[in-house]
Amino acid sequence: MTTASRHDAWQAGDSYDAYMGRWSRLVAPIFLARLGAGGGLDWLDVGCGTGALTEAILAGCRPRSVIGIDPSAGFVASATRSLGSVAGVTFLVGEAAALPVAAASRDVVASALVLNFVPDRARALAEMVRVARPGGRVAFYVWDYPGGGVEFMRAFWNAATALDPDAADLAEGRRFPFCEPRALTGLAAAAGLSSVACDAIEVPTVFRDFDDFWRPFTLGAGPAPGYCMSLAPAARERLRELLRARLNDAGGEIALKVRAWAVTGTTP
What we know:
Elements: H1 13-35, E1 42-46, H2 52-60, E2 65-70, H3 73-83, E3 89-93, E4 106-112, H4 121-131, E5 132-143, H5 151-163, H6 172-175, H7 181-190, E6 194-207, H8 210-214, H9 223-230, H10 233-246, E7 254-266
Parallel strand pairs: 1-2, 1-4, 2-3, 4-5
Antiparallel strand pairs: 5-7, 6-7
């Protein structure tokens, strides 16, 4: 399976928000409340995407400044349109493994739902530790892919695999087996963090109806939507109808949930 065929190109901010952003925005405030950082601090949001975590930092943490960094120019443009005019907020295009930020310059370095997509996770965490001040906090969270914690995504890939066994190689649960507590805390400790902790965060994902569930998979942002839109129209319709049947669509709400693993640690 080639890297290109995995559909990991996250570029269109509006499409991402419709697919994952609306749910990640529910997780961010819970993550920050548990982090318990005080006000007046300098933050770095690594892999800021369309700005969900930055927005939550501004709303609940009274930061002195926030820098958001993402490799996608499209995401950075979307975040800048939404939050770039706020005093103390800056968004930059950059890589997690080579952060364009001075060493020991940030009180809190956080990353939301991105570490699994970084090719060199160890290097990215080393960079997060580098830019944090001594005694600062480094924290991140990822979806519980191997545990089936993103239920709407699990439903999609289970149906896709029933029709196309090769689709199993694209599913995040198989591709990101490290997204579980032992491996995640091991990565944090190996990066030099102390007092490492890992906790689950769960939030509901309630879809208005089947169309609300299905439409984000047709927008092409991310592995599942990318796979969906790579199918021939007839194959896509078969997948749609199988999902509808498996979700027992009766024209009303579809109530599922998502779970993320949140890891925190302290720099030397």
